[in-house]
Amino acid sequence: MSYRPFSANWFTGSRWEGRIAYGADYNPEQWSRSVWDEDVRLMNEAGVNIVSLGIFSWARVEPEPGVHDFGWLDEVMNLLHEHGIAVDLATATASPPPWLAARHPEILPVDRQGRTLWPGGRQHWRPTSPVFREYALRLVRVIAERYRDHPALVAWHVSNELGCHNVYDYSEDAARAFRSWLRSRYGTLERLNEVWATDFWSQRYGDWEEILPPRLAATFPNPTQQLDFRRFCSDSLKDHFRAERDVLRSVTPAVPVTTNFMVMSNAKGMNYADWAGEVDFVSNDHYLNPGPRALDELSFSAGLTGGLAGGRPWFLMEHATGAVNWRPVNKPKKQGELGRDSLVHVAHGADAVCFFQWRQSRAGAEKYHSAMLPHAGEDTETFRAVKELGGVLAELSAVVGSSRARARVAVLFDWESWWAGELDSRPTWLLDYRREALDWYSALIELGVVVDVIPTDVPLERYEVVIAPVLHVVPNELSERLHRFVEDGGHLVTTYFSGTVDEHDHVWLGGYPGALRELLGIRIEEFGPLFEAESVELDDGSTGTLWTDRIELTGEDVEVLASYRTGDYAGRPAITRHPRGSGSASYVSTRLGVVGSERVLRTILDRAGVVSELPEELRGRVQLVIRHDARRQYWFLINRTERDVELAEVAGTEIARSARSERGGATSVIPARGVVVLEKPR
Ligand code: GAL
């Protein structure tokens, strides 16, 4: 892995050394020159020390092919530097200028129905277009060479949210690239026919040229073809990232390169577990998903980002001070949420807190999207909260460079299972992979347990309990690792539809859950999915929805933790636990929701000897996330409720809180929608 950790020496040589990076996307090209002076003045006032610049400026820096205008960008770079603000400089390739699409309409993506995605929005380029790639890399080189020695430059920001709008392209370029991707994956057509099981429905290929992306078809396209197409799309964008990165590295080997991931808002298309090793530091954009689970989802996503970063510090590249503009209804944040959300990211390892964007646009599609400096100007609650957050982040300088302390419990997150489990032609279309993973995560927080979210390639033996919700795709290697984990004393919990297929989406034969059947000591002959409004009762008081299984116990000593009381499988096991080696493997055959999952977890955690670090009265109301360095621990206590929570029982010295308390100074209360950070010796 080429990962160069993002750390305290990030700002070496600048006056911001050792500070949490604080800032935003900055789009000065949308404003007249006089506004820039006010921008830097207010940035200084707010404690902003970094901006991402030039993300959508291709049309300005290259107004005609090969003709460049950097005068304005030079001036902005200089102005920022004079004010002590570092620059994460974009390669400006996110959105091609009109002249490029007019000259080369063959760069435009095509959807699965064959419709062209025209210019007028943004990101209208095919990830596999050789023409786009050539123009983009040429621009990247010009920019890199121009700013290589600029003192404001601290990092490169490749493109922007790669795949946000253009991940699935079904064009001729995509077809060509898909074929060559398949050739290098499978070598021979014979092997591809075997893996895609093309004897089904007369799909056997006799020539590579016959193969297409899964375009709109009469009915379900071949599932392995669909799964491979997803892998290919993720790889194509990753390849684009690498191409830009390599140009940058050749010009400025010492400047770290990143691109902003989208864990989780729009992240299904990109297998970030596979991308994380390609960036010099992980960065992420996160937008709150409004609703009752918003905070848990935020924490889950930040936790997964920390997992992708291997527990090391990462960069929050974008989030929102208030409303976004792209949901059907866009509500502002409530008082306190701006600071709270920022500190939740810091808790999970973010050493940077940045927003989209610095100054709210006056025109364009994002004019109703919040920003650090709103339309109403500096005399606003938002700007006051922004300034306050700048102060809070300065107080948190001690945590910079510290890593996330490893939890004893982890939830596995697997893009391949997400992709394959939610394909069409499955036992149910109602399965929502992320929702299931989030349920287990919330249940653990309810129990007051510190939990990591990790991709499947992380060594499992670091954990005592691993929850693997809907781990649908289990290749041999993963199956072996899970077996070893349990044999060596780990406690595994998995759910319905897990272990079912191999990496080619071929079913493991002999009964479900296939690859995990023997480990779990159970056998399932057929699945029993439930209709949307249907539910079943379990004899432990839980309610199951979505799915049920007819379980046969095959292992020795399999313990039935709960049985179905109602439904087609009444009287049969619903939740089982199989002691194996010095560990155990448990199976949950229905969707339990947060409350039901909590009940199962209580038993499993108890047997594993995992207890909450939080005093009883805080469990559920407060989430604990821990960072640490060689000498100290930093306890981030996140209030999950809408009321103040008394902190009395927790030892440690308060070093920061997400908002200064109205009572002034440190108090023993975590305010509603607040986070308190305590320092303790390690
Ligand atoms: C992100 C994007 C930004 C901005 C933001 C608005 O997806 O990177 O450029 O559009 O969303 O929420």
Can you describe this structure?
There is one protein chain. The strands form six sheets. The protein has a nine-stranded parallel β-sheet with strand order 5-4-3-2-1-9-8-7-6. It has a seven-stranded mixed β-sheet with strand order 12-11-13-14-21-20-19, with helices on both faces. It has a five-stranded antiparallel β-sheet with strand order 10-22-23-27-25, with helices on one face. The protein has 17 helices and 27 strands. The relative contact order is 0.09. It is globular and about 75 Å long. The two termini are about 30 Å apart. The chain folds into three domains: about 20-170 and about 235-400, Glycosidases (TIM Barrel); about 410-610, 3-Layer(aba) Sandwich (Rossmann fold); about 620-680, Immunoglobulin-like (Sandwich). With about 675 residues, the protein is an alpha/beta fold. Residues about 1-10 and about 10-15 have low confidence and may be disordered. The chain binds beta-D-galactopyranose. Beta-D-galactopyranose binds near residues 160, 164, 285, 287 and 366. It is an enzyme of class 3 (hydrolase).
